[in-house]
Each structure stands twice: as C-alpha cells, then as structure tokens.
Automatic annotation (TrEMBL):
Name this protein carries in UniProt: Aminotransferase, class V
GO molecular function, one term: transaminase activity
Domain of life: Bacteria
Pfam families, sorted: Aminotran_5
PANTHER family noted in UniProt: CYSTEINE DESULFURASE ISCS 2-RELATED, CYSTEINE DESULFURYLASE FAMILY MEMBER
Family (UniProt): Belongs to the class-V pyridoxal-phosphate-dependent aminotransferase family. NifS/IscS subfamily.
Gene3D superfamilies for the chain: 1.10.260.50, Aspartate Aminotransferase, domain 1, Type I PLP-dependent aspartate aminotransferase-like (Major domain)
Ranges for domain Aminotransferase class V: 6-363
Keywords: Aminotransferase, Iron, Iron-sulfur, Metal-binding, Pyridoxal phosphate, Transferase
Needed co-factor(s): pyridoxal 5'-phosphate
Length: 377
C-alpha cells in the first residue's frame, strides 16, 4: 500500500541536497570547532560562515543566531533565560494556545519561581485580541511569548502589531515561536526580540534548531559549559548539523515561495470536499496558513479516525504531536470555544510541497468510507 504523508506540521522528510551535504561532511569532518589546531579553526570558520548565512536570510546579525537542538529548547531557553535575567519582573504574558514547550516552561516559572502568568484568550478563529493584549501588559512583564502560526489549526497571529505595541509601551521583551511560520507567512524581525525555529519542520535534520536573540536582550544561559554560542549555550557544538542548517533554511525558503499556489490549491480542494460531508466541522480559519487544515466529525473520536485512516495509508495527526499520547481534548480547540466533542474528534491534515490533488481526492474518499463504517457507533 502506498503511504501518503499528510503530517508535515509534525515533521518533514530531509531534503536530498541537505542529506547529501550532511553525509559528505560526516565522512571527512570531525574536528571540534573550539580546538586551536588547524582542523578545529577550519571547522570554526565554516560554522561562523553558516551562522552569517542564516542571519542574512533572517535579516538579523550573525551574533544574534544561537544554534540549539530545536524549537522546544529555543522556546524554553527564551522564556527562562530572559526571566532569570530580570529578577525584578515577575509577570509573563502568553496565549492559551501555545505549543507545549512554551506552555510547560511558563507553568514551571509560575509553580517553582512564583511568576504570575496571563493567558490571552483567542477567538473562534484562533486569534488573540490586540485590545486584551494591550490591557494585559504590565510594568513588571518580563516577556511576551506568542506563536506566529498555530501548529494545530494554522491561525496567524498579528505579530507585527503586537511587537510594535510591546516595544513602544513597555519594557518587556517579545518572543515569537516561528516554527510553523517560516516560509509560509511574511514576517518582519524588526519588532521581535527572540525567535525560535526547528530544522526538521523545514526538510532538515532533527535535533537542529535556532534561537534568535537580539543583542540588546538580557539572557541567562540554561546550559553552562564553555564559551560556545557566545557563552549562551555551553557544550561541544553539533557542528555538522549546524552547518547544514544554513542550506536547509535557504532551500526551504526558496521552495515554499515557489509552491505557495500549489499548497493553496490543495487546501481549497480538501476544504471543498469536507464541506460536502454531512456532520463534518472545519476548525481551521479560512484566513489561516494554507498547509494546515483541522476538522472534526464528532461521532468518531480522533484516535479511532486516525487508526482507520492509517490502515488506509494516510499519515495524519489530531493534536500537536508533542501532545498526541494524551487522551484529553485539544487545548487549542477548547480555547477557541469549539466544544469538547469537536475537540475530541479533530483531525489535522498538513500538506507539504510534494503532495498532490489526487492524494487529496483519495483522502476524501477514505475519510468518507470511515464515516460510513464507524459514524453510527
């Protein structure tokens, strides 16, 4: 049976050019980039060249790029690092639909370090209210953390407007989780102080990510060690993985720009088909990004539907993959006010550039068959 990957929001296949470059490097490069002999110096220079290339793509300075193991580490480091550097500020402002790496980091700051946390509500389209954000900002707010694009429903937050207001009307720092946004929405880094992203979401290697930390942002490192990453993240550099991240980002940005019309056509085909099925609710806002479509058939729980679709050859998710083992309803859909039944029966389809309209049609046929088989249970 041919398998169809409709779960790119969870992870992506490694781009062929990235994989080849990585394998070539593995076969001949092993020196520690902090060593002072010729091989170590050469590796260090390559690493800094990659850092500069990434900075240019993101329109920030090279010394503002910190290599990490992925977005979860970057998110946690951004929140804790900034808060620990401002001990007189004990308030965090975030949203009710963040990724678990932000949600748990913020909860830990509240439970162990006595921070107050304000969770911004969202509309039924999964978008925050700018007015609520403005009213919630306080003199002692250390950090505002808001994801640019939601990983479950694809809603897009007004990042530029939030950033502008935070800069002009507070002394807080603004962190943005860019994991699902890179290559899919246009973003101006001017008003963003810290940003997180993960290579494996953009056809790169797992265990590879970036934290953008602007030079003016105070920061206490969570991983202590040597002087790697400007003294902000200790430990021997995963140099080869970091090197290929520059190529990963460049190729992904180029590919996404070319493929946007195709991805939009896939979304429109799926949404049109779903609307013809009685009892199916579309949870993703029409204004959201093209590659994520979240929907529910309340009579069939997510796990039952996922297993049935898996047997028919389709790889899909329900919630964020980091929360996939939980039997609780989607916190995102509950926060959007869509109700427990829809939250317990959601399916997330997320497209990549190699998906086809024929695959969408096959999926709709399979989804209809599952409804017919299990819908009366």
């Amino acid at each position: 049976m041919r398998r169809v990957d409709f779960d790119s929001a969870s992870t992506t296949n490694v781009q062929a050019q990235v994989l080849k470059t990585y394998i070539d490097l593995l076969q001949k490069e092993y020196a520690n980039s902090e060593s002072l002999y010729d091989e170590g110096v050469a590796m260090h220079l390559k690493l800094e060249k990659a850092r500069a290339a990434i900075a240019s793509l993101l329109q920030v300075q090279a010394q503002e790029i910190i290599f990490t193991s992925g977005a979860s580490e970057s998110n946690s480091a951004a929140i804790k690092g900034v808060c620990f550097a401002q001990r007189d500020k004990k308030h965090i402002l975030t949203t009710s639909i963040e990724h678990s790496s932000v949600r748990y980091a913020v909860a830990q700051m509240a439970e162990i370090f006595n921070y107050e946390v304000t969770y911004l509500s969202v509309s039924e389209k999964g978008v925050i209210s700018l007015e609520e954000m403005k009213k919630s900002l306080r003199e002692d707010t250390a950090i505002v953390s808001i994801m640019a694009v939601n990983n479950e429903v694809g809603s897009i937050q007004p990042i530029q407007e939030v950033g502008e207001y935070v800069k002009k009307h507070s002394h807080a720092y603004f962190h943005v989780d860019l994991t699902q946004a890179i290559g899919k929405v246009e973003l101006d880094m001017k008003y963003i102080d810290l940003a997180s992203m993960s290579a494996h979401k953009m056809n790169g290697l797992k265990g590879s990510g970036i934290l953008v930390k602007k030079n003016h942002v105070p920061f206490v490192p969570l991983i202590n060690g040597g002087e790697q990453e400007f003294g902000l993240r200790g430990g021997t550099a995963n140099a080869l993985v970091d090197l290929v991240l520059a190529k990963t980002l460049r190729l992904y940005l180029e590919e996404q720009k070319k493929k946007r019309p195709h991805i939009q056509a896939l979304k429109e085909r799926l949404v049109t088909g779903l609307r013809k099925l009685e009892g199916v609710w579309i949870n993703s806002p029409s204004e959201g990004i093209a590659n994520i479509v979240n929907f529910s058939y309340p009579k069939i729980p997510s796990e039952v539907m996922q297993n049935a679709l898996n047997k028919k050859g389709f790889m899909v998710s329900a919630k964020s993959t980091c929360d996939s083992k939980s039997s609780e309803p989607s916190e995102v859909l509950m926060a959007m006010g869509l109700g427990r039944d829809r939250s317990l029966s959601s399916i997330r389809v997320s497209f990549h550039e190699e998906n086809t309209l024929e695959e969408v049609d096959s999926f709709l046929k399979a989804y209809r068959e599952v409804i017919q088989q299990y819908g009366s249970l």
